[in-house]
Specification:
The chain is globular and about 50 Å long. It has 2 domains: 101 residues; 101 residues, no CATH class. It contains 9 helices and 2 strands, in the order H-H-H-H-H-H-E-E-H-H-H. It starts with a helix and ends in a 5-residue tail after the last helix. By secondary structure, it is mostly helical. It is 65% helix and 3% strand. 22% of the residues are buried.
């Protein structure tokens, strides 16, 4: 490991992200759109990671170790208010994957998340959304479920159906009650307005 201090900082930032999410979920503050406190944690982490990337490039395992490299990916995955940063990080990870050790699962998740926010079909089936009735469903795929599951298997991931079961169970724990139809409509409108504001979509 070349940068132990940076590694420790990335791990601590990831821990703060996850601890904040757990606390806000327990307080019932994550069901009504993008919580401002959560967004601020994500933005602060992303800004610091941008500085680290300027200094050392993408924090791959050779630079900071496996745990911290995973933490860097999580920070990018959660930097949803910064589309340009997510896209540039994805491009950098792809490029440096030729010479450094970068988890292909991380690339799959990030590619799918970028596609989802841009209203494009996903390739690996890692992103799930509300179906409008309060149930989770897999976001739009670019191919059949069977072929997407084959791609997932090559990465060591479980099937879409198995992942859906896990995520639904987690959602049921975190969400005290299902939103009404009017609340879901308002949430969708707020989501689209937010995507336009930060630059994921133009219309």
């Amino acid at each position: 490991m070349l940068y132990p201090d940076i590694a420790q900082e990335l791990i601590e930032r990831q821990r703060n992200d996850l601890d904040s999410r757990q606390r806000l979920a327990a307080e019932g503050k994550l069901a009504g759109g993008y919580n401002p406190e959560m967004e601020e944690v994500h933005l602060d982490n992303a800004r610091r990671l941008q500085e680290i990337i300027v200094q050392i490039g993408w924090p791959a395992q050779e630079q900071v170790g496996e745990e911290a490299s995973q933490a860097a990916w999580l920070i990018v995955q959660h930097a949803i208010s910064l589309p340009a940063f997510m896209k540039s990080s994805f491009a950098l990870m792809n490029e440096q994957a030729k010479t450094r050790k970068i988890d292909p699962v991380n690339l799959a998740f990030l590619a799918d998340r970028i596609a989802m926010y841009e209203n494009q079909p996903q390739v690996y089936g890692t992103q799930f959304v509300d179906d409008g009735q309060g149930r989770l469903v897999c976001y739009q795929l670019d191919d059949s479920v069977e072929k997407v599951n084959q791609r997932r298997q090559m990465l060591g991931l479980n099937t879409i159906d198995e992942q859906l079961v896990e995520l639904t169970a987690r959602m049921n724990v975190e969400q005290a009650k299902l939103p009404t139809a009017n609340e879901r409509q308002q949430m969708q409108e707020d989501y689209d307005a937010w995507r336009r504001k930060v630059g994921w979509i133009s219309a």
